[in-house]
Specification:
heterodimer; A: Rossmann fold; 5-stranded mixed beta sheet; 5 strands; B: Immunoglobulin-like; 7-stranded mixed beta sheet; 14 strands; 12% helix
């Protein structure tokens, strides 16, 4: 009696993974694999059944007899952006039931699909190798404590205190950076213009007052007085405006710095390493 | 970090250097009837211009005698008598000249004469006697009075309204409501 388990492997991948069959054979040489790519989507409606484990018992048994295998291993890999989903199902051809299933959703890493496929099959055979686990762990930084953060909220706050919007730009928040810089630049410009108008009015007031006091001509006295009074009113208005704008600018400036600190750069809870995109052959 | 401290100090210095000072309105020209009115000096008023002068001892000082009307209620006058008192302990009379207003910048020649009592009182008389120019109207400069300073101190040159008079062409009095003195500070 042949003791080694025999598998009918049905690989349904949305992208071609050429090394998959070869790696399975190499890594699990104590098992016998029969590969068949012609049987497509025969279990695609599995999840729509109330009891997926017993939904295709007759078909499984039939395939078991047809291919003379103990198990049917269905591996589905689907890619979504920078992630992939491995849905592995193991059917027993003797009972026709689904005896094992693993569905994982992972960020792609170097030869990740192959490694996860081997780990899944190894799991069904009660066999795990440290190397496979290490390969998976390379997706994570080995020493999170050693990670230094180049960008900090305090760095953002200080930058925004120096120049509004700089801290947000430093945190890669371009829109809020532009908004803060624009608002503060507008307020500062308005403040400068108000101050210049105040200064002009104040100087003109002093000059007209001086001229008023140094003439004994009735008409000139009246003219200088009128001009000086207008300048005096203007210098009061522009002074108040400049003070209001200075308050708004100052408050905005500090708020901008606080905003930069609150929404400043902070470490993510899940950090992935960036990998080369070209796949390499994997040997077990 | 040093850069940040310097930056903050610069911002604070900029803030104080650009601070807005609010000036006080001080309109107190004796020729300005509005300013006089604010001080309770109604028009027509006899005033001196400037209102105050500071000079070193030994120098001469000129005060202008001016009649100030409200622009809405001017009256033509033909003659005027000014009675002026000055502190003879500080000042000695030097010269008295007719003002540009009554001479119409030397275009008319009214009668202009004065009497000094030798102590501290001056009487100035001016009248339009010609057949061409009979009177004059408005605020203007009646006479220049030049003094020599003889000792240091502060005092005033003032009008005595009891003896001052303004008349029109019909020899009727035009009331002079008030007066302002001139302060002289000799250092």
């Amino acid at each position: 009696m042949n003791q080694e388990p025999t598998y009918l492997v049905l690989n349904h991948f949305d992208k071609d993974i050429p090394e998959a069959e070869k790696l399975l054979v190499q890594n699990f040489n104590d098992s016998k694999f029969e590969f068949n790519t012609s049987l497509e989507n025969i279990f695609s409606d599995l999840d729509s059944h109330d009891n997926p484990a017993s939904s295709h018992m007759a078909k499984i048994k039939e395939l078991g007899k047809q291919y003379k295998v103990n198990f049917i291993l269905l591996n589905k890999i689907e890619h979504k952006e920078d992630r992939f989903i491995l849905d592995g199902l193991l059917f027993n051809t003797r009972s026709g039931g689904l005896i094992h299933r693993r569905k994982i959703n992972l960020k792609q890493y170097l030869d990740g699909q192959l490694n996860e496929l081997i780990m899944w099959v190894g799991n069904t055979l009660n066999r795990q190798e440290d190397e496979w686990q290490k390969n998976r762990e390379t997706i994570l930084f080995m020493d999170p404590e050693g990670i230094t953060y180049d960008k900090t909220p305090m760095g953002a706050a200080i930058r925004s205190l120096i120049a509004p919007g700089w801290g947000q730009a430093y945190s890669n928040k371009k829109v809020s950076s532009g908004v803060w810089a624009g608002v503060e630049a507008s307020l500062s410009l308005a403040l400068i213009l108000s101050y210049l108008n105040y200064d002009k009015s104040a100087k003109s007031f002093l000059n007209n007052t001086k001229m008023y006091h140094t003439t004994d001509d009735e008409k000139l006295v009246s003219q200088y007085r009128s001009s000086a009074e207008k300048d005096w009113n203007d210098h009061i208005i522009y002074s108040r405006l400049a003070i209001a704008l200075a308050s708004a600018t100052g408050t905005g400036w500090v708020s901008n710095s606080i905003h930069a600190w609150v929404f400043g750069p902070r470490p993510y809870t899940n950090i992935y390493q960036e990998w080369e995109t070209s796949p390499k052959s994997k040997k077990g | 970090m040093k850069f940040i401290y310097h930056y903050i100090i610069l911002i604070i210095l900029l803030f104080f250097s650009l601070s807005c000072k609010l000036y006080k309105k001080e309109f107190d020209n004796p020729v300005d009837y509005i300013a006089n009115n604010d001080l309770g000096v109604g028009a027509p008023a006899l005033v001196f211009y400037p209102k105050t002068q500071t000079i070193p001892q030994g120098q001469s000082v000129k005060v202008e005698s001016v009649i100030v009307f409200h622009t809405d209620s001017t009256e033509s006058f033909t003659g005027m008598h000014l009675h002026i008192q000055f502190p003879n302990s500080l000042l000695a009379l030097d010269t008295i000249k007719p003002g540009l207003f009554i001479t119409d910048t030397s275009n008319s020649t009214p009668l202009f004469t004065y009497n000094f009592d030798g102590t501290n009182q001056i009487d100035i008389y001016t009248y339009f006697l010609s057949a061409i120019k009979l009177d004059i109207e408005g605020t203007g400069h009646i006479a220049d009075i030049v003094f020599n300073s003889i000792s240091s101190g502060t005092d005033s040159v003032s009008y005595n309204l009891n003896y001052c008079q303004m008349i029109n062409i019909n020899d009727e009095d035009i009331p002079i409501i008030s007066r302002r003195s001139a302060e002289i500070v000799i250092q």
